[in-house]
């Protein structure tokens, strides 16, 4: 067993983790925030960076404190809750949402503009998604190669291209930053907080924990303490990279309006900005960037969900799960991006607040003596309003929900779950004290001590 790794190796591992988080959400949402927020971009981005980036490191640390896997962390609430939450989490981060979304976004940006729209474009999507899915399977086949493939090859190439794009936008700005649009005239910070959900990076941090540990085992790192330390170091490198990336993407969006006008999505913003900055060659740059971010996300998500299902159903091997979920994601991709987003956003609005609540609880565990009642009541409080937000997302009884529950502080801003979560926390703590529940304290990463 290696006692320590040289900085170059730690950096490569950090870049590997960074590349796992690079995906469509990391490059298409911040530009839209920039376009819409205008002069309020940096206020909006401060909220965006909290949920889209800052909580990622906290999620990584929470995993190390909670036992190393999201299952162990969620079991602090209840085993049944853990089973349902983790199942939804892995399916969303894998074949149901992230992989199909990545495939669809890459197709819309890099392929669709080049095809004849008069023909049946679904055929092109079918062919493209098949080829891209096949490539993902090949690169995900052996997780011990992740450090070399992602950290040492793909990420540096992506970084060079994105630095070129950003440098050009700074040297020759496309225009000045305009006035904020209606949605960003008030409640700007909280609007940025909720926009950060859509990167899904906090949920991804929970999912990537298992595949990360499996990947670094080939480097001779197996001691729990060493794995936790390395995970956190890699997380810091990841956070630095994500902050730089998101701020840069927001700048491109904010400075692009004069040149390209307002666009419907961040993919269009980036594509048109690249063409404005570099001419026709710009589409090659942004196409390559989107392709690299897409392939790294798909590799990480497909490998992570396959590794998870191999653990819960060991009779089916990792490689068989890889093929099963690849086929499922391929099928869902061909329903189209709009259908995918409509179907999955409500689930995302449910999972993200609960994930944030678990992170907060694991960090404050020893303050409330780790009582299970606190975990249960807090998650119930958060989950209740999260369900209401999900219902509003699908326009189900929206007016009725707003009328009945509008009294909850921050409910109209989409973060009313913070209020009900705090109420649940207090109720749970009082119940635990009344029932004299045993304390379950966290001593070291992944280790607990129980006190009566």
- Main sheet: which strands, in order across? 1-2
User: Which regions have little confidence, pLDDT < 50, spanning 5+ residues?
Assistant: none
Shape: globular
Main sheet overview: 2 strands, antiparallel
Instruction: Let me know the number of strands.
Output: 2
Estimate the helix proportion, in percent: over 70%
Overall mean pLDDT score? 84
The ordered H/E elements are: HHHHHHHHHHHHHHHHHHHEE
What's the CATH topology name of the largest domain?
Hydantoin permease
Total count of helical runs of at least 4 residues: 19
Structural class designation = mainly alpha
Portion of residues in beta strands equals under 5%
How many structural domains can be distinguished in the coordinates? 2
**How far is the N terminus from the C terminus?**
38 Å
CATH homology-level superfamily of the largest domain: Hydantoin permease
C-alpha Rg (nearest Å) = 22 Å
Q: Give the name of the CATH architecture of the largest domain.
A: Orthogonal Bundle
Task: Please give a structural write-up.
There is one protein chain. The protein folds into two domains: 7-345, Hydantoin permease, CATH 1.10.4160.10; 364-452, no CATH class. It has 452 residues and is an all-alpha fold. The chain contains 19 helices and two strands. The chain has helices at 7-21, 24-37, 41-66, 70-74, 79-96, 98-111, 121-140, 146-171, 188-195, 201-216, 224-254, 257-260, 266-278, 281-312, 318-333, 337-363, 372-393, 398-405, 417-435, and strands spanning 439-444, 447-451. Helix 1 (7-21) crosses helix 11, helix 2 crosses helix 13 and helix 10 packs across helix 14. Strands 1-2 form a two-stranded antiparallel ribbon. Keywords: Amino-acid transport, Cell membrane, Membrane, Transmembrane, Transmembrane helix, Transport. It is found in: Cell membrane.
